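Dear support,

Our group has been running a series of protein-ligand predictions, and this particular one with heme C is the one our PI (initials K.S.) wants archived with full inputs and outputs. We had some confusion internally about which version of the output was final, so please treat the block below as the authoritative record. The input we submitted was:
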Amino acid sequence: MRDYLTSLLLFSSLLTAEITGKEVYENKCASCHKLYIPASELIENFMEQNNSILKLDAPTINQIVFRLKNRIGDPKGDEDIHRMEVDSFVADYLMNPDKSKSVCLPKVLKYFKTMPSMKGKISVDEIDAVSTFLYDYNPDEHIEKKLEFVGYTKALETAKKENKIILLKLTREHCHFCQKMDQEVFSDTEVREALNKDFIVVEIDIGKEELPLKLKKGMTPTFVFVHKDEEIMAKIPGSWSKKDFLEILKEAVKAKGEEK
Ligand code: HEC
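Confirmed final output from the archive:
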């Protein structure tokens, strides 16, 4: 009998020790809450397309986490206290969901039904685990895993150091107008000089590489001018003559100058 009890205790403590927040999320939340969708897609879906693109039934975890961490308690205060504030909000919400307590944007929330209560369906340990998982969830890790821009990251470093503009040159294999511009414009000395003076050029094959800054893939060539603090200054699609392209470069330099 005693052995049986000991092993039962051991077994159950092993079980509890093994619950990770991620597993709780996967088993009890993932059926409604998708983990990650880039912010740009979420904005388009909810703000412009009435949830018709993604047809979500519930906010994504990156959405929830962003709101939780910014709207509950004092986000700039002590981390342990903030963590407790978020934990208690989540624990309460799981038991007594009520849209009026929600921290989601009303414009987003209107597409969802109220979350069903999880009373009796989730243990205290599981709640703890899942709310730690939420608090520690870092959407940037997700982005970095998905995208690798050695070229862009380097360019950004240099742009900051040398106060230059990043020019993303978006091309694609067999793109006739990209090749035409390479031959007629980018090979030209005057253009090269203008580029070298004020820009760092990053060439990206959109058929093979991911785009930085949540840019969407579109026509090629497209020229995206990016300020050294990663603000997009202009997006200019199309094939340009040398004269027009030099004009475009000049405008970009002017825009940068004006803002200082
Ligand atoms: C049956 C679907 C469903 C399941 C399962 C579910 N949720 Fe939700 N949840 C929703 C919906 C819908 C909303 C948005 C409406 C609302 O806030 O009630 C929501 C909202 C939330 C919110 C945000 C409240 C706010 O302030 O906007 C949190 C936090 C949350 N869920 C956590 C969880 C966690 C953690 C789990 C798993 C343990 C879980 N949910 C399981 C459907 C679900």
